[in-house]
Design a protein that fits this description.
heterodimer; A: PmbA/TldD fold; 2 domains; 6-stranded mixed sheet; about 20% helix; B: PmbA/TldD fold; 8-stranded mixed sheet; 11 helices; globular
């Protein structure tokens, strides 16, 4: 069954059953992945999926479903079950109707590359190139994943929206280990084959792993810190996720109540850009069918907007920002405005501090206040007088989101699109340079 | 689609696979959400599909599809085989699977009160009842500006078949409750509490959890900590850790590092590796009184299963026995690599995920102390009953837990609440500092994440209350 046919079946049947409003998003995807570890491929995978996601409203009540069983009889049964569920739901005081279409959508350039869609076994050659480069640069054991594929989407609503989109995407992560613990990571990603540089990713991973071999022990304390691009991507994903109005209204954001306020230093501007050429998260329309746009979340340190769908916008007495998510509004591409100096010049500004290339395992003690800690890895270095001196092991980043945002001193000039497997709030990608933050907190185990 | 699973295995063998397996899943999840008293989108996810795995020339290929289409199935099986064949050239050492008995079985977890027989109204009403209590200051003694409450019911039906003759069917219903509450006290800030409960049962589990009373009590305690919590003491002190803390600590610092795929480096790119090496089996890691097991066979548990997703019969695994590293968690690939048999730790979160090494229900075995006996000779200490923030490094050596509900222990008695004590400790530091374990074993539920793409699987973690000697609290 074609995507249009599937979406039409859902909308027609839901209206017949008595729904006031319905949206159906049919998605077909073929994705592939080559995983590797210890310099060898560990498994190759192919996923073939056809799914339909349904939003259904009646009498100011909202229900929904995701169906990976798209046989017509299964769809009819699911819609009938949704109607039964609606009957016992209570009205939403913040209910807002879906946007009234139709709308015109300007395609986003650079989102589909046939060569990427048909890569198949050539992917293994690219993985081998990345592994070999990481080994040449000083890695001893190399692991990673190369994921790539294509996705086609068709959105139909009972409010006159009809929209479709097709894209390819690829992400290669390479992690090299020079011994049991000294590690480095390199990433490359994009929507076109030409966006990918497996050898650069391999070289960065191997180089950082080798640089981590000489170690120095540091005490807990506050250090001027440069976040590498993987670390900065995870950090700014948190900030953008906390701008989602759902999280603001759920006690999961330290940006609550701060619209129009200075939440970051003046050098920080963060945009949500669904229209980024070649952006992994680019989309001409959101899940409600509204045309998307580029917008500032934070501009010169001031919080400009939360991210909204129609319902959260109604709750906040404003307009949707075209970031639906039927439940949780979400950023499309998070773009951090680059600074005016090279990576090396940024490093030169650190007298005694740290370079933290990657962070993972982010956990909050208090989302509402922004207190969190994170594991730091894949290249953590002591920087003395602008130069990397030694690797550092055993520290943990322990600070506060707002405190870090307000302490950003400078950013480098080269922003790169960075996909990361640990995106706390699920941004598809963050375009970020290196970021220098003053006096970031780090702790150590006591026993 | 079961017949397509059989067909996939036959086809793969005919096309040259040395080994082939297929899993057909029919999975559903119904969810009900209340956010600050507003019913967010309720609904369900329903998935049905087949995952196929092949071993060809010592390399693995995997494919999944959800369209019941024979031609598409054949295309994907061919692709899995050709990709495996192409990647075999990168392997210096071919992948092999351990020899295991080809089981034929059918098993299930039984719900005494199946969720589908409970009226929808009753499920939503439960959330509204909780909401009512949490927003009544007279009940909880503190302002609770944010409440996110979620009830989820899941069912998984699986059929496993492989080229060695194994055929296993199962059906498992699961129920889960999740909440995040934020308590606020003017001038004292906020404290948040997350709760996850889960069981392979029906509505009877919801009754057993006594959610209303439990959440009321926890939020009350948040208020007390907010109003009266003092700073934690400095210097080396004694600690008593509650079973909720101990449970997650053993999951993170014993379960994960004993996963043999991490030990062998297969997860190095994302989840990471392990501080444990294969030659550490038999070495001491903790005090004689410490034993940690992982047991999928606990009836009603959230991580319950009787056969894993490679068709191997499940059993209890002793990870740490009397303080000695005793056993790792294995699937058939890691077992063959280390020359042992699989202990049935292969799990896949859905039809579209490969089975990888996972925990099920990981817990420290209880001791024979009474809780009061843990406290009685402590001059100055801290009892950390529940936690908020936690994490552990990718080798599972350096971990941190911050107390949520915690108290000062003075001269053998619990006295005042303590706010946010930071326990930052190495794994050997933790196991080596335990000197007493009480008899009160309790479990909590979680969704354990691992792999890329991410696979979340239901687990329990549990433990008794334990005492640690001479540990300094951390933080800045």
């Amino acid at each position: 069954m074609e995507l249009r046919e599937l979406a039409e079946l859902v909308v027609k049947e839901a209206l017949r059953l008595g729904a006031d409003e319905v949206a159906a998003e049919a998605v077909r995807s073929v994705s592939r992945q080559v995983r590797f570890a210890n310099n060898e491929v560990t498994v190759s995978k192919t996923w073939d999926a056809l799914e339909v996601h349904v939003y259904l409203a009646k009498d100011r009540k909202v229900v929904g479903t995701s169906l990976a069983n798209v046989q017509p009889e299964a769809i009819r049964k699911a819609l009938s079950d949704l109607m039964s569920l609606l009957a016992v739901m209570k009205e939403r005081p913040d209910y807002a109707p879906l946007p009234q279409g139709p709308f015109d959508y300007e395609p986003v350039p650079g989102l589909y590359d046939e060569r990427l869609a048909e890569l198949s076994e050539k992917a293994i050659d690219m993985v081998e190139a990345a592994i070999n480069k990481a080994l040449e640069a000083g890695g001893k054991r190399v692991a990673g994943t190369f994921a790539f594929g294509e996705e086609e989407l068709f959105l139909l609503t009972s409010r006159g929206v009809e929209a479709s989109d097709r894209k390819t995407k690829a992400e290669l992560v390479v992690r090299a280990l020079a011994d049991g613990e000294s590690a480095g990571v390199g990433l490359t990603c994009g929507t076109r084959l030409k966006d990918l540089d497996p050898e650069l990713a391999g070289e960065e991973a191997g180089r950082y792993a080798k640089l981590s071999l000489r170690l120095e022990k540091l005490d807990a304390g506050r250090y001027d810190t440069i976040l590498g691009r993987p670390a900065a991507a995870v950090f700014f994903d948190i900030v953008a996720g906390m701008a989602s109005a759902f999280n603001v209204d759920s006690g999961l954001s330290c940006l609550a109540g701060k619209l129009g306020q200075q939440v970051a230093s003046e050098v920080v501007s963060i945009y949500d850009d669904a229209r980024l050429e070649g952006g992994l998260g680019s989309r001409p329309f959101d899940d409600e069918g509204l045309p998307t746009a580029r917008k500032p979340i934070v501009e010169r340190g001031v919080l400009k907007t939360y991210l909204h769908n129609s319902i959260t916008a109604k709750r906040h007495n404003t307009s949707s920002t075209a970031n639906a998510g039927w439940v949780v509004p979400r950023p499309w591409n998070v773009v951090v405005q680059a600074g005016d100096r090279s990576d090396e010049e940024l490093l030169a500004e650190v007298r005694h501090g740290l370079l933290v290339n990657n962070i993972t395992y982010v956990r909050f003690q208090d989302y509402a206040k922004g207190d969190f800690s994170a594991v730091i890895r894949d290249g953590v270095f002591l920087v003395e007088n602008g130069e990397i001196k030694t690797g550092v092991r055993g520290l943990r980043l322990s600070d506060n989101v707002l405190n870090m945002l307000r302490s950003v001193r400078a950013l480098s000039e080269e922003a790169r699109q960075t996909a990361h497997w640990w995106m706390e709030w699920g941004s598809p990608a963050v375009v970020t340079p290196l970021v220098l933050i003053g006096q970031v907190g780090f702790t150590v185990p006591t026993k | 689609m079961k017949d397509l699973a059989d067909m996939a295995v036959e086809l793969a063998v005919r096309l040259g696979a040395d080994y082939a397996e297929a899993r057909f899943h029919e999975d559903s999840a119904n969810f009900y959400v209340l956010r600050n008293g507003v019913p967010e989108m309720a609904g369900f996810d329903r998935a049905r599909g087949i995952g196929i795995r092949v071993l060809v020339n010592g390399a693995l290929g995997f494919a999944s599809l959800n369209k019941p289409d024979k031609a598409l199935l054949e295309q994907r099986v061919r692709e899995a085989i050709s990709m495996a064949r192409a990647s075999a050239r990168t392997r210096k050492k071919p992948i092999r699977f351990s020899e295991e008995r080809a089981e034929e079985a059918s098993w299930e977890a039984r719900a005494r009160e199946p969720m589908e027989e409970v009226p929808l109204e009753e499920k939503m009403e439960l959330l509204y009842d909780i909401e009512k209590v949490l927003t009544d200051r007279a009940e909880v003694g503190v302002q609770v500006p944010f409440r996110l409450l979620e009830l989820i019911e899941r069912t998984t039906e699986r059929y496993f078949v492989n080229s060695e003759g194994a055929r296993i069917s199962c059906r498992v219903p699961r129920v889960e409750f999740f909440s995040i509450t934020t308590a606020m006290e003017p001038g004292r800030g906020t404290e948040q509490d997350m709760v996850q409960k889960g069981a392979s049962k029906g509505w009877e589990a919801v009754r057993e959890w006594e959610l209303l009373e439990m959440l009321k009590e926890r939020v009350k305690r948040l208020g007390v900590v907010l109003r009266e919590g003092v700073s934690p003491p400095k210097g080396a002190i004694d600690l008593v850790l509650g079973s909720e803390v101990v449970g997650l600590m053993v999951h993170e610092s014993c379960g994960h590092p004993y996963e043999a795929d991490r030990i062998l480096g297969r997860e190095a790119a994302q989840a990471g590796e392990s501080f444990v090496r294969p030659d550490m089996l038999g070495q001491r890691i903790g005090a004689e009184i410490v034993s940690v097991v992982d047991d999928p066979t606990l009836e009603g548990s959230y991580g319950f299963y009787l056969y894993d997703d490679e068709g191997v019969k499940a059993r209890r695994r002793y990870l740490i026995k009397n303080g000695i590293i005793n056993e790792f968690l294995h699937n058939r690939e890691t077992a063959a690599a280390l020359g042992v048999s699989s202990n049935a730790a292969a799990r896949a979160s859905g039809y579209n995920r490969e089975p990888i090494v996972r925990m099920a229900n990981t817990f420290m075995l209880p001791g024979d102390y009474k809780f009061e006996e843990l406290l009685e000779d402590i001059k100055l200490g801290v009892y950390i009953k529940t936690f908020g923030e936690w994490n552990i490094d990718d080798r599972r050596f350096n971990m941190r837990f911050i107390g949520r509900e915690a108290y000062l222990i003075e001269r053998g008695e619990i006295t005042r609440p303590v706010r946010r004590p930071v326990l930052e400790i190495t794994t050997p530091g933790f196991y080596g500092s335990i000197d007493a374990i009480d008899e009160n074993l309790a479990f909590d539920a979680g969704t354990c994440g691992k792999g890329d793409p991410m696979q979340g699987v239901p687990v329990w973690f549990g433990g008794p209350n334990v005492r640690l000697r001479k540990v300094a609290l951390g933080g800045l």
